[in-house]
From TrEMBL:
Sn-glycerol 3-phosphate binds at K107, G137, K192, D245, S255, R256, N257. InterPro entries: 6-PGluconate_DH-like_C_sf, 6PGD_dom2, G3P_DH_NAD-dep, G3P_DH_NAD-dep_C, G3P_DH_NAD-dep_N, NAD(P)-bd_dom_sf. It comes from Bifidobacterium criceti. This is Glycerol-3-phosphate dehydrogenase [NAD(P)+]. Residues 181-321 form the Glycerol-3-phosphate dehydrogenase NAD-dependent C-terminal domain. The keyword Nucleotide-binding applies.
């Protein structure tokens, strides 16, 4: 198969690295933390970010050296926390082989620029659009690391590249579908994290499934409206990467976004919830960017606005609901 390098040995980077290794590829993990590199290389484990896996496959290696990591890569997969991706990738600019494909697993919007990860990756690496791919779907890392059956969507403007990478990440337990709708894929993955924060808050505040369903339904509409205004295909939002990922992320305490929201709903401050989080909750930085995207495209974003009010102004969950659903609107 292929030589594939994964940049970022977090929970999903490591679990997806295992999928790629199970599919028969030779996988090199690059991480900034020397302790993680050492543990993967010496013990075939990532005790910091993915402790549930006792032994990673033998065809998974690790290095902390940037040039060595990517020198022979056919594909470079990026799994770095979204707000740090640009800075981290700029240090790889000029090191990648000329024809290498670059695949983003990230689900976030850059806070300072409002840019999607396809834009950030292409700018940071001077990468042509046809060599950028995104992977997004209902993919809670711990369950995929346990090899439970799951599926994802691989996107690329060059559908042959999407098809080629989908083959490289298909195993008996992990299936990949393809699309050319990069904008849809990026916005589904990033924006559902904001919805998961709100649903987590609802459960943390003590409410049940009706409240969660009300938020999820509003969230899906909001994601679709912002996304289609930005150029995405509407059908992407009703597929695996859209409603599929919304169901998984809003329904599981394994989601860092859901859990972050749950802790806020129970009364923690943003600082306390950040300290309690086991990995990055991308929705926290992305919420404000969604509001800005809404303003840019003249689409109302009551859910994202209400979530930013909780994050920035510390309003209660009940007040958030009142702001999301003013008395004079009808909600579908
Ligand atoms: N976990 C999941 O279930 C899924 C996650 N995703 C998305 O994938 C992305 C990564 O998630 P995940 O792996 O779970 O997150 P984690 O929080 O587990 O890991 C984040 C990764 O980013 C790295 N990182 C942070 N800052 C820097 C930096 N300045 N330079 C280099 N590396 C840095 C971390 O390195 P270090 O460990 O050394 O701090 C770590 O490898 C996110 O955008 C997330 O939304 C998508 C689908 C599923
Ligand atoms: O995107 C995910 C599942 O598809 C993971 O969600 P979290 O980043 O909230 O853990």
């Amino acid at each position: 198969m292929a030589n594939i390098t994964v940049l970022g040995a977090g929970a999903w980077g490591t679990a997806f690295g295992q999928v790629l290794a199970d599919a028969g590829n030779d996988v090199t993990m690059w991480a900034i933390e020397p302790g993680i590199v050492e543990a993967i290389q010496a013990e075939h484990r990532n005790p910091v970010r993915l402790p549930s896996v006792d032994k990673l496959p033998d065809n998974m290696h690790a290095t902390g050296d940037r040039a060595e990591a990517v020198a022979h890569a056919d594909v470079v997969v990026v799994a770095i926390a979204a707000q740090y991706a640009r800075g981290a990738l700029e240090q790889f600019n000029g090191l990648l082989p000329d024809e290498a494909l670059v695949v983003s697993l990230m689900k976030g919007i850059e806070k300072n620029t409002g840019k999607r990860m396809d834009e950030v990756v292409e700018e940071a690496l001077d990468l042509p659009t046809n060599r950028f791919l995104a992977v997004s779907g209902p993919n809670l890392s711990k369950q995929i690391a346990a090899r439970e059956p799951a599926a994802t969507v691989v996107g690329c403007t060059d559908i042959d590249n999407a098809r080629a990478f989908a083959k490289m990440c298909t195993t008996d337990y992990f299936k990949a579908f393809i699309t050319a709708d990069i904008i849809g894929l990026e916005l589904c993955g990033s924006l559902k994290n904001v919805v998961a924060l709100a649903v987590g808050m609802s459960h943390g505040a003590g409410y049940g499934e009706n409240t969660a369903a009300m938020i999820e339904t509003r969230g899906l509409t909001e994601i679709k409206e912002v996304g289609t205004a930005a150029g995405a295909l509407p059908e992407t939002f009703y597929g695996l990467a859209g409603v599929g990922d919304l169901i998984a992320t809003c329904g599981s305490p394994l989601s860092r976004n859901y859990t972050f929201g749950y802790n806020l709903g129970k009364g923690m401050s943003v600082d306390e919830a950040t300290k309690a989080s086991n990995g990055v909750a991308e929705g926290v930085a992305t919420a404000g960017a969604v509001v800005a995207l809404g303003e840019q495209y003249h689409v109302d974003t009551p859910l994202a606005k209400a979530v930013t009010r909780v994050l920035n102004d510390g309003i209660s969950f009940d007040q958030m609901i009142a702001e999301m659903f003013p008395k004079n609107i009808t909600v579908e």
